[in-house]
Amino acid sequence: MFVDLPLPQLREYRPERAEPADFDGFWRRTLAEARAHDLAPEFTPFPTGLTVAEVFDVTFAGFGGHPIKGWLLLPRHATAPVPCVVEYQGYGGGRGLPVDWLLWPSFGYAVLAMDSRGQGAGGWRRGDTADPYPGTGPQTPGVMTSGIHDPAAYYYRRLYTDAVRAVEAARAHPGIGPVAVGGASQGGAIALAVSALVPDLACALLDVPFMCHIRHATQITPEYPYAELAAYCRAFKDQVERVFETLAYFDGVNFAARARTPALFSVGLQDGVTPPSTVFAAYNHYAGEKDIRVYPYNGHEGGESAHVMERVARAKKALG
């Protein structure tokens, strides 16, 4: 079933943003703290037998200098620096295995697939990066409420910072040229944040992005992961406003208003996980060049293989 506003209303849906006064300062300080640690990127050759790509096991310093894992796949036999897409993971997933990332090398591009700290045990793609940050307090199962009592302690501060550092790690490799970012769901949310925090990206591929218009999302969908926030607010009734004050620092609509990276969004009109109005809220606030693909009879899976080809076409336009 269609789960939200009619499409003509969605295309005009541009809600007011709840933005902290020190949003920009918060993120400047956060990234400066991270950059005080040596990025120290390591690219260790990883034997796979693949004929299309050369694979490297990647480690770099993310938030707090913590070691973050990833895979870098370079098209085999490339003789000059090649464009790279940095890909971020959906909720609960990790970097998986190199064979999960053959799409971009098949088209002649590199890909750096960043692991998500503390995730990757959700049963669909394994992760290899711990989250050593201490003192996050009580939380609902999952990561949505980890450290939510304080923006400085909140999980997504660490994850978004890791994502910026992943772009820096990709650029540190001599075989990499221009860089784009992409992801779906949580990965789309991360790529949206990075599109605002890193000013000189080639493009952003933002599919059914999560973490947008967050308070509204908790009011119109019972689906997870937003349901984790509702469960936390049921348990801590006196902290509801504090919860959403924290989340305002991580809401995709606030990043969208600052983004100048050319972007391709996608949305499914039957998506109960990231409801269409939350996606359009970010899209309609997005300050850069933008386009969106709408899939009326799809849910959170978005446009599936048909949209994969849309992503490739958009990357080719931006990356050459």
TrEMBL record:
Pfam families: AXE1 (PF05448). InterPro entries: AB_hydrolase_fold (IPR029058), AXE1_dom (IPR008391), CE7 (IPR039069). The active site is at residues 185, 271, 300. Transmembrane segments: none annotated. It comes from the Bacteria. Keywords: Hydrolase. Residues 2-311 form the Acetyl xylan esterase domain. Its EC number is 3.1.1.41. Residues 121-142 are annotated as: Disordered. GO terms for molecular function: cephalosporin-C deacetylase activity. GO terms for biological process: polysaccharide metabolic process. Substrate binds at residue 91. SUPFAM superfamilies: alpha/beta-Hydrolases (SSF53474). PANTHER family: CEPHALOSPORIN-C DEACETYLASE. This is Cephalosporin-C deacetylase. It comes from Nonomuraea rubra.
